Every structure is written in structure tokens, then in C-alpha cells.
């Protein structure tokens, strides 16, 4: 995988399953730029990062790939949105196996849900993008739709849009609802580029985790937005991260929550021993560098082997 970072374990035991991970490709056919914080962004080079990732994943014969969201950037010219998204989806489809997508805010800046989800092959119920699958009997992968309640992606008069706008009106006094200025601490998450998990999805998540517990499965949760402050920053958190975590903590089956969105990456272990891994963005890789990885799932641990900017990490289960 090129230069791997800090591999913490060299145990010989074969993993139950291995899969590829990448986040925040945010491709656009435009010159390089910067984030609002001044961090360089390499819009065209991110496609090359993805190409190298797919080549490596195919060489490693991984079972599947998970994209943690934002395959195109919000600065992508809107008359090129569909073409750009299809272009990057086609790069993913060179992988010799299933690719599972998580939707992010930049995806929704470019296309509404009714056009985006078919391109990503997400067959959600009534436009929702949460789902789960079991790649091996011992594990279940749960993909959350963090923009279920959101001011972007849905029609302007959709109930989920109106709920989101009401939340923003109550919690963010700024005219520009993407601006967290004046908000303090955790309140800074109430910006338009974030969203929430709705009631139906929350009930579904509870049922999935209950079922996984009965089947004695370990669970990996994927969401574009982080669910733990210690792995991220206030501005990147899911609006109702605390409610989602309350559901997760009812059970002992969830071992790790994977996220993107906060481009610098991060890692934490919460009060119930759940690991939270935020993946470093492919978008912020200078020419020739990479940010993607392979996640190995074992009976007793998880091992993330990252390339270049993506840090390698190991998690050993406490029970």
C-alpha cells in the first residue's frame, strides 16, 4: 500500500474478512484550492488517490469497499455534477467486488437524493440511505444516513427539510446557517453542512443492534459525520450524535464507528469501550501521496492499515 503508517500488530492469524476504506475524495475538475480554514485541497489529484486505492484493493483481493462519503466537492460546477459523480463511481466500480457508499453533504450539494441514490446504487426506502449487511456470520456492517433530517438533498417543502430548518433556526442565530460564529462548544455542530438521524432510522438501528446481539455478531457502524467529540471537532458532529450513541450503548455488539467529514482524521474510545475512527480525507493529499486503507476484522480485534496520510490503528476487544 505504499508507505503504511505505524502498523501496530504483526500477528499471523488470518482475518475473518478484510475490506477497503476511503473518505472525502471530493473530486472536481477545477484548480486546487483551500478550505475555509486555509487547508490545501487537491480536487483533481483526489481521483488519482482513488485510482491507486482501487488498484491496491484489487491486488489485496479484498471482499468489499466502503466509501465514507463526499465523492465530489461542493465547488464542482453544477452543470458537471452528474458527470463528475458518475466518473468517480466508475473509478470505484473498477474494484473487483461490491462498493458500499455513505452519503455526505458534498454529495447532496451536487445532486438531490432522488438522482444521487440510484447513481450510488443505494436502494433506500422512500429516499433514505441507511442499510446493513453481513459479510461474514461474525460481523454486521451498519451504514447510517446522517442527512436523514437535513436542509440539503430533500425537496424544499419535504418534512425532513422543514424539520432541519426549524432546528437551525432555533440553534443557530446566524443568517448564514453554515456559519458557526457565536456558537459555543457542542452548539457549533448546528450548521447546515451537518444533519441528523430521524426517528424511523433510530428505531431501525435499535432493531438491527438487537438482532446482531442475538446472533452474537460484532458491529461496525459507518456514518459520514463523527459520533464522538473526542475523535473530531464540534463543527463536524452529527446533530443528534448523543441520541445515536445512547442506542449504541444499549448493546455490547458495536465495536467501532467509522466516519469521515472531519478531514484531519481522529481516534477515540468512548465510555463504553467503542472505538471511533475518523478517516483522513483523500482530498487533502498532495501530489503522489495517498489516504486510504484496509480494515481487517478478527474475532478479538480490528486492524486498520493505512497508506501515507491515513494512520494505522489497532483495537483489541475488551470482552
UniProtKB/TrEMBL annotation:
Signal peptide: none annotated. Belongs to the ADPRibase-Mn family. Gene3D superfamilies: 3.60.21.10. Pfam families: Metallophos (PF00149). Its cofactor is Mg(2+). It catalyses: CDP-glycerol + H2O = sn-glycerol 3-phosphate + CMP + 2 H(+); ADP-D-ribose + H2O = D-ribose 5-phosphate + AMP + 2 H(+); CDP-choline + H2O = phosphocholine + CMP + 2 H(+). Keywords: Hydrolase, Metal-binding, Zinc. GO terms for molecular function: 2',3'-cyclic-nucleotide 2'-phosphodiesterase activity; ADP-ribose diphosphatase activity; CDP-glycerol diphosphatase activity; manganese ion binding. Coiled coil: none annotated. Its EC number is 3.6.1.13, 3.6.1.16, 3.6.1.53. Monomer. InterPro entries: Calcineurin-like_PHP (IPR004843), Metallo-depent_PP-like (IPR029052), MPP_ADPRM (IPR041869). The keyword Endoplasmic reticulum does not apply. Residues 19-264 form the Calcineurin-like phosphoesterase domain. It comes from the Eukaryota. This is Manganese-dependent ADP-ribose/CDP-alcohol diphosphatase.
Amino acid at each position: 500500500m505504499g508507505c503504511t503508517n505505524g502498523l501496530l500488530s504483526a500477528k499471523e492469524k488470518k482475518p475473518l474478512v478484510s475490506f477497503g476504506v476511503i473518505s472525502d475524495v471530493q473530486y472536481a475538475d477545477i484548480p486546487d484550492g483551500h478550505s475555509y480554514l486555509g487547508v490545501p485541497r487537491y480536487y483533481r489529484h483526489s481521483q488519482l488517490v482513488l485510482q491507486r486505492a482501487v488498484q491496491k484493493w484489487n491486488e489485496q483481493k479484498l471482499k468489499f469497499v466502503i466509501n465514507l462519503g463526499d465523492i465530489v466537492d461542493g465547488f464542482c460546477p453544477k452543470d458537471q455534477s452528474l458527470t463528475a459523480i458518475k466518473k468517480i463511481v466508475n473509478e470505484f466500480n473498477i474494484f473487483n467486488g461490491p462498493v458500499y457508499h455513505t452519503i455526505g453533504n458534498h454529495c447532496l450539494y451536487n445532486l438531490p437524493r432522488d438522482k444521487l441514490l440510484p447513481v450510488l446504487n443505494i436502494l433506500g426506502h422512500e429516499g433514505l440511505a441507511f442499510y446493513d449487511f453481513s459479510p461474514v456470520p461474525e460481523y454486521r456492517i451498519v451504514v447510517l444516513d446522517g442527512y436523514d433530517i437535513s436542509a440539503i438533498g430533500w425537496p424544499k417543502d419535504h418534512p425532513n427539510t422543514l424539520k432541519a430548518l426549524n432546528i437551525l433556526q432555533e440553534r443557530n442565530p446566524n443568517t448564514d446557517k453554515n456559519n458557526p460564529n457565536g456558537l459555543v462548544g457542542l452548539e457549533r455542530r448546528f450548521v447546515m453542512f451537518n444533519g441528523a438521524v430521524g426517528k424511523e432510522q433510530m428505531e431501525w438501528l435499535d432493531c438491527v443492534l438487537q438482532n446482531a446481539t442475538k446472533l452474537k455478531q460484532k458491529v461496525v457502524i459507518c456514518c459520514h459525520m463523527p459520533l464522538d467529540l473526542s475523535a473530531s471537532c464540534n463543527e463536524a458532529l452529527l446533530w443528534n450524535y448523543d441520541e445515536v450513541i445512547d442506542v449504541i450503548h444499549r448493546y455490547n455488539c458495536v465495536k467501532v464507528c467509522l466516519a469521515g467529514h472531519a478531514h484531519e482524521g481522529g481516534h477515540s474510545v468512548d465510555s463504553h469501550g467503542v472505538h471511533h475512527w475518523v478517516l483522513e480525507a483523500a482530498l487533502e493529499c498532495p501530489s503522489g501521496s495517498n489516504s486510504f486503507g484496509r480494515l481487517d476484522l478478527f474475532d478479538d480485534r480490528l486492524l486498520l492499515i493505512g497508506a501515507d496520510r491515513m494512520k494505522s490503528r489497532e483495537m483489541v476487544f475488551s470482552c
